[in-house]
Amino acid sequence: MRPMSRSRAALTLAGWGRVPVAGHEISTTDLTADSRGAALLRGLGRSYGDSSLPAHADDRIVNTCRAARVIAWDATTGRLRAEAGLALADMNALTMPAGWFTPVTPGTKFVTLGGMVASDVHGKNHHRDGCFGGHVTALRMRVASGDVLACGPAIEPELFWATVGGMGLTGHILEVEVQLHRIPSPWIWTETSRVDDLDGYLAALAEGALRWPMTVGWIDCLNRGRRLGRGILMAGRWATADEAPARFPGNPWPLRLPFDLPNWALNDLTASAFNSLYYWRHLQRHRAHIQHPDAFFYPLDRILDWNRAYGPRGFTQYQCVLPRAAGPAAVHEFMELLTRLGGASPLCVIKDCGPEGQGVLSFPLEGTSVAVDMAITADTQRIVDELNAMVIAAGGRIYLSKDLFTRAADFRRMEPRLDRFLAIRERWDPTHAIRSAQSVRLFGY
Ligand SMILES: Cc1cc2nc3c(=O)[nH]c(=O)nc-3n(C[C@H](O)[C@H](O)[C@H](O)COP(=O)(O)OP(=O)(O)OC[C@H]3O[C@@H](n4cnc5c(N)ncnc54)[C@H](O)[C@@H]3O)c2cc1C
């Protein structure tokens, strides 16, 4: 007899933005058996919006987090194969001591391999290494017919590239095989620069991308005029064995936000105070030092449940990419519109993206990505609509993993690849058995 492979709880489900929907999920250690007939698989729920949420309260949703076995790990080649529910945190803990690291990491390690493929996550090294899907060598999937099959860049490539960044809509990812990157040490050599304004920031970002494998930065988007876009640019690379401390980086003690802050706690005044403090904390204009990898890659993970800071109303993240061809003027226009609409908050991250990858619906394209958290208010829909209009005019697009408010017509306008994606989805799921709240909102099914 199989050990208890499932647990089932009736609840409301939510993404990281904490906007609840009615539904329940089954958590399983036997993903292959229990994914049969599921409307959707979800991992650690770190997508902000409704991509991992049920379209209907009685849709069968399977949580993969307990299906997290490592199936094969070769510390000489850096090739790893694991069940889709393996958390990146656990993969890092296994592979870093052997000198290997995920080729691409998002800004949190509390994501699953399945979620990383479905979102085709990008990281601070996108300009050098592209998205996660570009390093995936094979997937084992259950498609809507119930069949379990293998796919990869050379086997069923059309299904594979639609699954990479396809938000779980082409089938259930059961296993992921990925080629990791060799690292010379587990520490990061980082350089931070304080920059006075948006033009300075964008110039430093472009220049940094030429010299550094990893760049990212925070900007103050609450200030208007001259100081709009002042920020802190962080560039990094893996420290060499000579530079790195001899010890392995320890696990920083996690803090936890134990309750919801009241809705009013994050307001213009507290957000401005936070921004000024953060900016002036970097007293030295340039600083170079060795950094703990978690502090470099995952600063927000230091406080578990930090999403409660936005209060019970919940929040969303607006993330778009503005193409390089639209130039710095488009970034200026976006930031000015954002502050004028009152959408700005303390968390505003600007990154450089390299060329578009092969994932049919993958988010990045060559240009500048801007991500900003927003508490949900009566104005949020209007703000997102206006930002989307500007992004569409500039030839950009939004990131589905963060989205909760984009309208179907706007998504279609910003996504010339949509018909191709929907045709592939139709081929593999003609009865539309696999769906999410997001797919129904944006595609109608
Ligand atoms: C603090 C923070 C920082 C982040 N930084 C970044 C960043 O820098 N770059 C970036 O790209 N993203 C970033 N993200 C977003 C995050 O990486 C993605 O949303 C990721 O997909 C979350 O993984 P998950 O396991 O939590 O998936 P979930 O949120 O549970 O699901 C996300 C999507 O994947 C699908 N899915 C999950 N598992 C499977 C499976 N086994 N088979 C089929 N479909 C599946 C779901 O249906 C859903 O559509 C960040 C999120 C947070 C909270």
Share of helix, binned: 25-40%
Tally of distinct domains: 2
Bound molecules: flavin-adenine dinucleotide
Rg: 21 Å
Number of strands: 21
Mean pLDDT: 93
Shape: globular
Helix vs. strand class? alpha+beta
Largest beta sheet: strand ordering: 16-12-14-13-19-20-18-21
Could you please say which CATH topology of the largest domain applies here?
Alpha-Beta Plaits
Largest sheet: 8 strands, antiparallel
**Helical stretch tally:** 13
Q: Return the CATH class of the largest domain.
A: Alpha Beta
What does this entry show, briefly?
This protein is of the alpha+beta class and 445 residues long. 27% of the residues lie in helices and 25% in strands.
SSE map:
Blueprint: E1 6-13, E2 21-28, H1 31-34, E3 40-42, E4 61-63, E5 70-74, E6 79-83, H2 88-95, E7 100-101, H3 113-119, H4 126-129, E8 136-142, E9 148-151, H5 157-163, E10 172-179, E11 181-182, E12 188-195, H6 198-211, E13 214-219, E14 231-238, E15 255-256, H7 268-281, E16 286-291, H8 293-297, E17 303-304, E18 315-323, H9 327-341, E19 348-353, E20 367-375, H10 380-394, E21 397-398, H11 408-414, H12 418-428, H13 437-443
Parallel strand pairs: 2-4, 3-4, 15-17
Antiparallel strand pairs: 1-2, 5-6, 6-10, 7-11, 8-9, 8-10, 12-14, 12-16, 13-14, 13-19, 18-20, 18-21, 19-20
Helix pairs in contact: 9-10
Bound molecules: flavin-adenine dinucleotide (FAD).
